[in-house]
Amino acid sequence: TVAETSAVMVYGDSPNGKNRLTIIAEPVDQGIAEDIEAGHVSLDWPARQVGQFFEANYGWDVLAGRSIWAFGPGESGPNILSDETLAGDTDRARLRSVRDSIRQGFQWAAREGPLCDEPMRGTRFRIVNAALADAAIHRGGGQIIPAARRVCYSSFLTAEPRLMEPVNFVEIQAPAACVAAVYTVLGRRRGHVTHDAPKPGSPMYMIQAQVPTIDASGLETDLRTYTQGQAFCQHYFDHWQVVPGDPLDASVVLQPLEPSAGQQLARDFVLKTRRRKGLSDDISIDKFIDDPTLRDVVRSLQQ
In the chain, fewer beta carbons within 10 Å around the N or the C end? Predict the structure, then answer.
């Protein structure tokens, strides 16, 4: 996901150099991703109804809601592509003719993000300008799809990208004497307790907590070990949360065979995931921006 709006307007050229797309990435409002995934809003609705939904629930401008082109990845993915070009700057008829190709490029980018080839979440891509070739043969899918994907990646990387992880809701039952041990186990696994109360009519305590899914593996075994088998738990997926730290922070040095902590965590997850998938350690925006001047500007902003 992203934490801020793109620091600079980045553009991407098609392989033949005759088309140029300019896109800005920004985070969506809290709750929109969940609404899209739950089917509370759909692009099968008339544009007017979609606009009214976003206006009523999130205070969007009516035109902003009606200009949404796609959700992604898939039909109910938690990312948004919208057309915010102005008629004076962009030939709208030409842009509509390549709409499907831009959509495909966006879907591809949303499905395989630049950090570690995993899906994006909670990001809105706004097309703010499009300079397209006069001849239809020069703006086919083979030219527009890769250009749209590249510019989605470059705008994403200039908008303070962040890694997200799933979080499990855990419900633990244990005798009162074992509560301290349960807290110890949760503390070692980045868990935090949300509710803690005795269970009426029994000697047991009910502890509700949230634990990142990556740390929930082996939690039950740990609990039984620390409480002599007196505690038992059940857990299921609850929500997504941002991993602490900047995944692009090259100053973080990972120690072999040692877990990372605090603000180093995002970098640790990204590098280990990329290595496991056979990708290079370098997440460079240079691969997605052709213009040397723009590249220098972006690099100076990131430093």
Answer: C
